[in-house]
Amino acid sequence: MDRAFIFDVFGTLVDWRQGIADAAREAFGCRGLSVDPYAFADHWRACYDPAMERVRSGSRGYVPLDLLHRENLDQTLTAMGIADAFDEAARNALNRAWECLPPWPDVHQGMDRLRPFGLLAPCSNASIALSARLARFAGLRWDAVLGAEIAQDYKPRPEVYLAAARAFGLGPEQVVMVAAHNRDLAAARAAGLGTAFFARPTEYGPGQDRDLKPEEDWDLVARDLADLAGQVARRS
């Protein structure tokens, strides 16, 4: 195939907030802790970009996202005042919640409809190990697992998008980045890729105030992944 669609995963294809909150609720219930699982999920996720920025800036060498998540978990447990309730084994188990996130309802149909028109792969900040296990859990059928680890850097650095294109033997103009995040698409466009957007208006909860609409004239704008696949089919 001479075309590929590469995807942001956390937020675009899977509901990280609900998945992490569900795992936290179970862990807290076993320990008799009264902590808001959504606040816990939000805090853990808020550590995500600052941790990656240390790698992007060069102040830290590349390490896989699994390790950053684990370090961020320690920070979050401390911030929530519940660090003493989780030993090393319990922390490692909770960290694996990122491998067990539910897909949004339109994802399977959308991927199946899109598959005839190009190769499909994640272009996620997740490690290959994390991406593969999450794909098994969420039923994401990929042609390859690409993203940050093959580039040894984190989005939105251009090399992450360009490495994905090279891995498929394609030029950036033959690859479409699919994301529910305008910042991700802006970086992909700057690297020469095509762009496709649909919103996930509850990714950050009911008070979400970002990525509710396209902020640039992206190549494709859809209601969801199934609608995006329909648009691609009509244009092909």
TrEMBL record:
Keywords: Hydrolase. It catalyses: an (S)-2-haloacid + H2O = a (2R)-2-hydroxycarboxylate + a halide anion + H(+). It comes from the Bacteria. It is an enzyme of class 3 (hydrolase). Its EC number is 3.8.1.2. One of its GO terms (molecular function) is (S)-2-haloacid dehalogenase activity. InterPro entries: 2-HAD, HAD-like_sf, HAD-SF_hydro_IA, HAD_sf, PGP-like_dom2, S-2-haloacid_dehalogenase. Gene3D superfamilies: HAD superfamily/HAD-like (3.40.50.1000), Putative phosphatase, domain 2 (1.10.150.240). The keyword Magnesium does not apply. Belongs to the HAD-like hydrolase superfamily. S-2-haloalkanoic acid dehalogenase family. Catalyzes the hydrolytic dehalogenation of small (S)-2-haloalkanoic acids to yield the corresponding (R)-2-hydroxyalkanoic acids. This is (S)-2-haloacid dehalogenase.
